[in-house]
Amino acid sequence: MAARTLSPLDRLLADAQNALETVFGAPRAERPNPGAGAADVVLDEAERRHAAGLMRINHVGEVCAQALYLGQAAVARDPATRDDLLRAAAEETDHLAWCAQRLTELDSRPSLLNPLWYAGSYAIGVLAGLRGDGWNLGFVVETERQVEAHLDEHLQRLPEADARSRAILEVMKADEARHAAHAEAAGARALPPPVPTLMAMASNLMKAIAYRV
Predict the structure, then answer these.
(1) Is 5 left (phi over 0), alpha (psi -120 to 50) or beta?
(2) What percent of the chain has pLDDT over 70?
């Protein structure tokens, strides 16, 4: 049976459903949680709150990644580029589920501002995609590089005993590096100098807020 070609309305409804599931639902991972095999060490209250703040940032990052990739895919001109973006979004769902599970284990919650983070990232993804597929992929590369850098930072800042969070972030970091390399190989264009700086500024603001809210 031939695959059905989705109409613009079909795509809009599918993206709306994904938004609701990402922000309000409980996404399910296709891969096992990397932290499941690590010892669940009891952290003191300060360590627990700090680890939860970092994992909440990472959860927000995955909410944003879902929205960003789907926004880019919605306007991608090349079917192969669209498929790559949707494949990356599906893999990011694993990260989203793992971070949510770890937040529960840390007796914490996701960011209360997730609807706002999702809406803003989706809009940015659409704007990036409208520039063309080369710029679309360039945005993926820069996004993944910045995410990889902040995961490195979080691996340094996590409480030493928090092996479960650390195992999750290690796998996420490897996945982000692979996504960036794949986008580069597919023809990503380097973004002009002001754009990476603005992206980093927006990311730093998000991290400062999501750590607490």
Answers:
(1) beta
(2) 95
For residue range 108-119, what is the model confidence (pLDDT) as tens digits? Answer: 999 999 999 999
Residue with tokens 């789907």: 70
Domains along the chain? 43-210 (1.20.1260.10)
132-to-68, 189, 200 alpha-carbon distances in Å: 15, 10, 22
DSSP secondary structure letter of residue 38: S
Q: Which two tokens stand for residue 56?
A: 């909440």
Interatomic CA distance for residues 17 and 23, integer angstroms: 10
The pTM assigned to this predicted structure is: 0.90
How is residue 67 written in tokens? 């929205």
Q: Is the dihedral of CA 200, 202, 208, 213 positive or negative?
A: negative
Q: Compute the distance between CA of residue 5 and CA of residue 22 in angstroms, rounded to an integer.
A: 24
